[in-house]
């Protein structure tokens, strides 16, 4: 739950510097890497599994997110999101979605969550 508050807090904080961008788009962009992760899990390219299948717990999973949460993957996703935002709401919005939201939220999630695990 704390991770959700951090993601949405980042979107709300950026709203002042991007008044033309709808709040829903800013909030969506903070979870963009996670949404791509879900699509890649459905496609069989990424996965997650409980550490102890007999006793599953919240946060007790091994996440294999080689594409959606890698540095290169995050940059590619952020560039695409930034281009879409620039087209929809102007160049400033594209830069904000790219820099302040998509990449920053991936960095915050990666470094502040003790539950995030990625194994190679």
What does this structure look like?
It is a single chain. This protein has 120 residues and is mostly helical. The protein has one domain. It is 62% helix and 7% strand. The chain contains five helices and two strands; from the N terminus they run αααββαα. The chain has helices at residues 2-15, 23-30, 32-42, 71-89, 91-112, and strands at 47-50, 61-64. The protein has a two-stranded antiparallel sheet with strand order 1-2. α1 (2-15) crosses α2 (23-30) and α1 (2-15) packs antiparallel against α5 (91-112). The longest helix has 22 residues, at 91-112. The chain is elongated. The model is unreliable at 111-120 (pLDDT under 50).
Features:
120 residues, mainly alpha, two-stranded antiparallel sheet, 5 helices, 7% strand, elongated, disordered C terminus
Strands, helices and their partners?
Layout: H1 2-15, H2 23-30, H3 32-42, E1 47-50, E2 61-64, H4 71-89, H5 91-112
Antiparallel strand pairs: 1-2
Helix pairs in contact: 1-2, 1-5, 4-5
Spatial gap, N to C terminus? 27 Å
Broad structural category: mainly alpha
How much is the average pLDDT? 78
* Number of DSSP E strands: 2
Largest sheet: 2 strands, antiparallel
| Tally of individual domains | 1
